[in-house]
Write a structure and sequence with these properties.
Blueprint (H helix, E strand, L loop, with lengths): L1 H19 L1 H14 L3 E10 L13 E5 L2 H6 L10 H9 L3 E7 L2 E9 L3 E2 L5 E4 L5 E8 L8 H15 L5 E6 L3 H9 L3 E11 L2 E6 L1 H5 L3 E4 L2 H9 L1
Parallel strand pairs: 7-8
Antiparallel strand pairs: 1-8, 1-9, 2-3, 3-4, 4-7, 5-6, 6-11, 9-10
Helix pairs in contact: 1-2
Length: about 230
């Protein structure tokens, strides 16, 4: 039995490597090996400037738009929402907004948008960026609604709203090991502009930003800027 399970695991791994290609497979192996000894991440910065008209029309029966706090708190009790009170407390306090697509009273898809430095994983770090852009994070589509392009529609409609408010575009990041998400973003019109390298060993951080990141002030900061954000918001 154990022999069969090992064989199935090896077969699945081999098929996955064939799908990813040798270069990405080698990259995954390298990152996983380093993470056995230390925390290591490569954050690929991505940028979306133009609204795609093909992803603006919401399917009939769905309701798109930004959700207020009352509606958001309503979804905390749904385990499929990915929302909890602690997250909402922090996100709403700094003015972040959630653009969602509802199917009746069901939260089908959403994405969060911020104009201020935002917490990432590891949670003691904040991702900073040029305030002329809006940062997208925590995108989620209910598995029951996947394949209906709701994520793309919500993102383009949100971008349209922020462009009307004066933002130049959306910035975000995808970890380098998440090849599927990177491909999906590129299909939606995003382009890569640079990478942030994070190595944490024995409690010390080494953070390196590629040259493309400086143009968008895309960098990692310690948690202390949260105080500055509160003052700036006021």
């Amino acid at each position: 039995m154990e022999s069969l399970q090992r064989h199935d695991h090896v077969a699945r791994t081999w098929r996955r490597m064939q799908q990813l290609g040798p270069a990405h497979s080698l990259h995954l192996l390298l990152v996983k090996t380093i993470n056995c000894l230390a925390l290591f991440k490569i954050l690929r910065g991505i940028l979306l400037l133009e609204v795609d008209p093909a992803f603006l029309d919401c399917p009939a029966g769905y309701t798109p738009g930004f959700l207020d706090e009352k509606r958001l708190r309503h979804f905390v009790g749904d385990p499929r929402s990915g929302l909890d009170d602690a997250f909402l407390d922090e996100a709403l306090a700094k003015g972040d907004r959630c653009y969602a697509i509802l199917d009746g009273e069901t939260l089908a898809a959403y994405g969060w948008y911020s104009r201020l430095p935002t917490r990432i994983d590891p949670p003691d770090l904040l991702l900073g960026f040029d305030p002329e852009y809006v940062y997208m994070y925590k995108g989620l589509t209910d598995p029951r609604y996947r394949g209906r392009r709701l994520h793309a529609i919500g993102m383009n409609r949100a971008l349209q709203c922020y462009r009307e408010e004066g933002a130049k575009g959306i910035v975000s990041y995808v970890e380098s090991t998440n090849g599927d998400s990177l491909k999906s973003c590129f299909r939606l019109g995003y382009r890569a502009f640079g990478s942030i390298y994070l190595l944490r060993l024995f409690g010390y951080d080494l953070r390196l930003c590629g040259p493309g990141c400086r143009r968008y002030r895309f960098a990692l900061h310690d948690d202390e800027p949260m105080e500055g954000m509160s003052a700036r918001k006021a």
